[in-house]
Amino acid sequence: MTSTATRTIAEHTIVLAAWIDENSDRLDKFRRPVEGGVRGAVEHARELMALLYEAGWSRWGWPEEIGGLGGSELHRAAVYDGLGAAGIQIPEVFVILETVAPVLAHYSPELAADHLPAYLRGEEIWGQGFSEPEAGSDLASVRTFARATGDGFVLNGQKIWMTLGSSANYAMVLARTGTTESRHRGLTMLWVDLASAGVTVRPIVAANGREEFAEVFFEDVEVPAEYLVGPQDGGWGVAMFLLQYERGMYAWLRQSILHHRLSAVAGRVRPGDTRSSRALGEAFVLLAALRARSVTTVTALAEGRNPGPVVSVDKMLLSSAERATFEAARKAQFEEFVVSDDLESATLRDEWFYSRATSIFGGAVEVQRDIVARHVLCLPTGRRANS
Ligand SMILES: Cc1cc2nc3c(=O)[nH]c(=O)nc-3n(C[C@H](O)[C@H](O)[C@H](O)COP(=O)(O)OP(=O)(O)OC[C@H]3O[C@@H](n4cnc5c(N)ncnc54)[C@H](O)[C@@H]3O)c2cc1C
């Protein structure tokens, strides 16, 4: 492989396409749906991770000091785009990678050096521990409490909706170190070993029947001082740093997959089926808008610029494009969607169900609209005056 300095994004894309071509047989299994529910999907993902690590692809875009091969977010984006275009199902572990790893790399390079290579090889799984039963959209009301002991922290509380929580070895947990009234000023980000004494993980079965999430309970869990991510009481800033990736890089990653998915749907629309054609067209327009918007965001991240509150637009476009894509798929494959029991039809139903959730995770769409209204469009707040 050429060094980062000489590997432009255009070269990166060409070399990747050639590698995918040469390794088509080995990659073929990653184009097809997987049996065995979420656990089956995780084991399958580990195999793909190991393959991409061995070939170096997943190491591009991460600093060499933490086990990467250098380059920027654009190198990672090019890999997602190349894999997506080749019909390879980019597994959920990459979503968590794009959410958690940038934070470790930025705030805790030592932790990143210890854990990123293991994650990229498929040996570790991580979770994101933000939401609580009474703290979802209102993240500043987190109640999981971390008491500073001098040697570290003692953690007590509960997290919920942790994606892949049942398989996770470590989690990035947002905890309260100040008083409840301190709201966003009294929060701290911690890296937590989920094998620690006092951690209980309970799977949650989603409406599609899959164990997508887990709730995680902490009872006097000891967290060493070196597992502090960012400053104590500075967890809000760390969480905001994370959200630009959870909303921005995630949107890019998904649009890479959705473009390929929509092409497959187009191949199934029957002549004269105007209902499906219209749905397909609507999804295509939304995806085109998402891709155009997302390029700007990924470029900003690659240049070390914070995209700011406008990243909420990426999240909203993604939510609409995701729903529209699977709605088009449902219409074009209506019979299979409703009655077939084969793996492909069951996977389509799972994907359709999951597409409904895009308007919730990473910040609900209603909240994103509010952010855009206040912080991007600077609209006046307060009650509407009676006319
Ligand atoms: C598929 C999926 C994966 C997830 N994975 C994770 C994960 O890995 N880790 C994690 O920590 N969390 C995860 N979550 C949780 C997710 O972050 C929360 O569901 C989300 O933040 C919303 O919080 P809530 O569910 O408590 O709903 P609430 O905050 O109670 O919101 C309920 C409704 O009220 C609306 N609402 C709330 N506040 C406002 C407001 N100010 N203005 C207008 N409307 C408002 C919302 O839009 C929503 O429709 C996941 C969720 C899903 C669906």
TrEMBL record:
The keyword Lyase does not apply. The keyword Kinase does not apply. GO terms for cellular component: plasma membrane. Pfam families: Acyl-CoA_dh_1, Acyl-CoA_dh_M, Acyl-CoA_dh_N. Residues 234-377 form the Acyl-CoA dehydrogenase/oxidase C-terminal domain. Its cofactor is FAD. Residues 129-221 form the Acyl-CoA oxidase/dehydrogenase middle domain. Keywords: FAD, Flavoprotein, Oxidoreductase. Coiled coil: none annotated. GO terms for molecular function: flavin adenine dinucleotide binding; oxidoreductase activity, acting on the CH-CH group of donors. This is Putative acyl-CoA dehydrogenase. It comes from Rhodococcus wratislaviensis NBRC 100605.
